[in-house]
Amino acid sequence: MNFYEHTIIARQDVSPSQLKQVEEKYKKIIENNDGNLLKTEKWGLMNLSYLIKKNKKGNYIHFKIEGNGKTISELEKYEKIDKNLLRYLTIKVKKIDLETNYFEKSKEEKDKKQDLD
User: Is the pTM of this model over 0.85?
Assistant: First the structure.
């Protein structure tokens, strides 16, 4: 089995319930195709570097997957036709870091924000 990091960007106007459905849909596809979902990170709504299909922002969801080529090809097959998604990217990695969450706000940032409120 190989390790993959897979990121999808959903449209900015997708409701939270639709976003949850998108996440669940791709979790099921991974599990139904001999894949093992190790971790899911919701990075939230972030600015895009350039307009994609007239969208300035996108909702990012990042999956850390253990699987094979069949798992990824099935996943990408469904993502190509999904109207809620703007982009997707899969990267094969040698090992997965399950500890670090790069887009989680640090405790210091949270404390500063609370002080300002």
Answer: no
